[in-house]
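Minutes, project check-in
Item: structure for the 315-residue chain
Input as provided by the requester:
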Amino acid sequence: MKINHMMRLGVSVIALSAGAAMAQESTDPIKLTLHDWTGQLITTELMGSVLQKAGYNIEYVQADYLAQFAGLETGDLHVAMEIWETTGREAMDAATATGKVVNLGPTGMQAKEEWWYPSYMVEKCPGLPNWEALKEPACAEAFSTAETAPKGRYLGGPVTWGGFDEERIEALDLPFEVIHAGTDAALFAELESAVQREAPVMLWIYAPHWAPAKFEGDWVAFPEYTPECYSDPAWGLNPDMAYDCGKPFGAIWKVGWAGLADKWPGAEKAIKAFTIDNKEMGAMITEVDLNDSSVEAVVADWMDKNEARWSGWIK
């Protein structure tokens, strides 16, 4: 995340052009949440930029990924642009069940989040990608560090991302320990460093992102996810514990405060219409994370090149 972007968090950004929407709807700021990974910042700024073009007052608010639902339920927050099927489905379903939060539809992107390893580690753990290979002491030790030995080290995402990795390790009796990266940037900086040195690394990788395209490797194949795996301990290999499976795959959703439609109906329509695919998002993330562009510059470039597309969302 760029410094100039961080300085803008929580600051109301008012469109300079007075659109019809502002004349007809509330001029209060629509509060869009920002999290701690590049793709979400891009998605949110894209939506905010489109809404500004329609004349809305926009405010970006830094918020915890899962805890944000409390603010969405009360109406203190209004829009969250990326709720991943892989990690946010339970929290989203609980929030929408209250009737105070609504699902505004898919973003068009498909989420994958799972344990990932570089291909050079297969020589040291030849049973991969089968998850059962990780149970072998020699394999676990191949992924270990001085901090975790003889257990393997799994570099997880920031704690706020959720994901049930500790629960999975316990349920599947894996000789691994979770060490959480402090930030999204730290997670991928460690990956870059490890691959350059061909050092052992097992970590949380997600898509859409540049990493699985840039580096040769694979995701661990855990038992296939079903909703029962998370909700029913009797399901699966461990009859006494839930989470004995892989993470779910699927859509990345947009959600909002239920009062959005009454207070800003045109904005809600535009948010529902918003769509972007993995390829587009991956290219923009690459520009920010690898080519040192700012989020603002990448968003502005996309807006310039796609005016015919986004203008249809606000008609």
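Outcome recorded: The longest strand covers residues 101-118.
No further action items on this chain.
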